[in-house]
Design goal:
Layout lengths: L1 E2 L16 E4 L5 H10 L6 H10 L4 E5 L5 E10 L3 E9 L8 H12 L5 E6 L1 H9 L3 E11 L6 H7 L7 E2 L5 H12 L4 H10 L5 E3 L6 E6 L5 E8 L2 H14 L5 E6 L2 H9 L3 E12 L10 E3 L7
Length: 304
């Protein structure tokens, strides 16, 4: 996840005083949010808090000689399975001066002892990551839905009238987490537990005798962010999204979904439209063991 492209730069961007990179602190969160707003990203303070709680030494900021934050990068470790890079941001006026490259190098240094490093790149950042040894895994697209009623055709196609989707209960959690480890390829209980605590109304499961799918979500600045969405089949995924969205028709939503024609077409019936693409990439000898056939929405470029 990146906002590192040149974009519009100040005339003196290359003549600015050198920046230094240091570990991010909790009192930098406000500056981190300013970076997000400058790039029109959707993160809120809670996202930064989760990064700092999980990886207190793995988040960095670039600062000028007055300690003003002008860039950031965050890293996570999903056990011994793989690591993650996100929140690679540089203020527009400072782009084009190599700060993004330095932040990426710092992140890779932090994660040097891991077997695989992953990230979700924007098209603008794809070349930077490719030059750093990252390879493409698969493509994603962000779908957004403004406030409005769920379409009747979307409800009908999803089978919402006889849906198996229901709010997640405490007794469901262990089964959900076991399935998630198998699909995601790593244990992210700490993250999913946080999502359910923070936004329990977005935690759903589907299935009759067994759990055939699950959905989580979280708060966002301009949109509520749904994901991960994992299901045995598209019918279950439809039930989960339709149930959640129809319960909250007054809220705007985004999902980051793998590119599948039928899935995107159905989301269109719920008034979801394409916002922008991402490219999931990895660096290392072994391709990650993610069960992408069961993934209908990732958590997001921040967390994988």
């Amino acid at each position: 996840m990146d906002a590192l492209s040149r974009g519009p730069t100040a005339p003196d961007a290359h003549q600015r005083q050198p920046v230094r990179i240091r570990t991010m602190r909790h009192d930098d969160i406000a500056a981190g949010l300013q970076l997000c707003r400058a790039s029109q990203w959707n993160q809120v303070a809670r996202d930064w808090e989760l990064f700092l709680a999980s990886s207190p030494e793995g988040c960095c900021v670039a600062v000028d000689d007055s300690d003003e934050v002008v860039g950031s990068v965050a890293t996570l470790r999903y056990g011994s399975a793989f690591s993650w890079i996100a929140m690679a941001l540089v203020l527009p006026a400072y782009r084009g001066a190599g700060i993004g490259t330095r932040l990426l190098e710092e992140a890779l240094t932090i994660l040097h002892d891991g077997p695989v490093v992953r990230l979700d790149a924007t098209p603008a950042g794809f070349g930077l990551y490719e030059r750093a040894g990252f390879r493409e895994e698969y493509r994603l697209q962000r779908m957004q839905r403004a406030v409005g009623p769920t379409s009747r055709s979307g409800e009908r196609e999803s089978g919402v009238g006889r849906s198996s989707a229901r709010p997640m209960q405490d007794d469901d959690v262990n089964e959900v987490l076991m399935q998630d480890r198998e699909v995601f390829g790593a244990d992210r209980r700490w993250l999913l537990d946080a999502f359910r605590r923070d936004a329990p109304e977005y935690a759903w499961v589907g299935g009759q005798e067994h759990i055939d799918g699950y959905l989580f979500g979280r708060r966002g600045h301009a949109f509520e962010h749904l994901g991960p969405l994992v299901a045995r089949d598209e019918a279950t995924a439809r039930e989960l999204v339709a149930a959640c969205v129809s319960t909250h028709p007054d809220r705007p939503f985004i999902l980051d979904v793998p590119r599948r024609t039928s899935w995107a077409h159905w989301l269109d019936t719920l008034q979801f439209t394409v916002q922008r693409p991402f490219i999931r990439m990895y660096r290392g000898n072994d391709r990650p063991l993610e069960r992408t056939d069961h993934v209908f929405a990732i958590v997001g470029p921040e967390f994988g």
